[in-house]
Amino acid sequence: MTVDAVIFDLDGVIVDSEPVWEEVRRAYVATHGGTWQPDTQRRLMGMSTGEWAGYLSGELGVDRTAEQVAAEVVEEMTRRYARRVPLIDDADAVVRRMADRWPLGLASSSPTRLIAAALAATGLTDVFRVTLSTEETARGKPAPDVWLAVAERLGVDPARCVAIEDSSNGVRSAAAAGMRVVAVPHGAYPLDPDAAALAAVTLPSVDALTPEVVRRLG
After folding, report:
1. DSSP of 63-84, one letter per residue?
2. With contact defined as beta carbons under 8 Å apart, do 209 and 203 qualify?
3. When you count CB atoms within 10 A of the terminal residue's CB, does the N or C end of the chain come out lower?
4. CB crowding 186-214: b at 16 or more within 10 Å, else e
5. What is the pLDDT of residues 160-216, one digit of tens each?
6. What's the pTM?
7. CA atoms within 13 A on the CB side of 206
8. In the prediction, which pLDDT does 212 show?
């Protein structure tokens, strides 16, 4: 079977934003009377904005409504991005290399405004034919919704897509959509064993992603 499209995650694949998200949300939880748990960051990775805002407000005991949490945390992330978007390695060049061969989509758990800021800062806005936030889907990752929606908007069969992901929930999500998954785990957030088993191939860094790697999955 041929590959008809390549769909990227954003956080942890193109921009090294997971540590920034963790720092911002940890500080927010501490400031507003909540308690960060040992498994919080792992659980948060892949959640949609509504899901993680509800989690901070509810389970972690933050003394703000979910709506306030979402607005205030995203505002701080926007300020951080205005200063610097942390591009991973040569991820922009890797993305362009893929775009020379396949139509590209972006399936991200970031809010729409942060996706736009990250792509503008890295010069990749026009490289992706479709970009979608889990803000616009019923469920965040590990549910497959965002991947299926991006494939539909690209006009391709999900089974003929290759997904590029870094997190356990992201890999679970893309695999549940029926896509072949290239995992590029972040050094600070290794994949859970069940997620690692779902990946068709695991790479040490995004620099190792080449058209040949994708073609071999066809």
Report:
1. SS-HHHHHHHHHHHHHHHHHH-
2. yes
3. N
4. beebebeeebeebbbbebeebeebeeebb
5. 999 999 999 999 999 999 999 999 998 888 999 999 999 999 999 999 999 999 999
6. 0.92
7. 26
8. 97
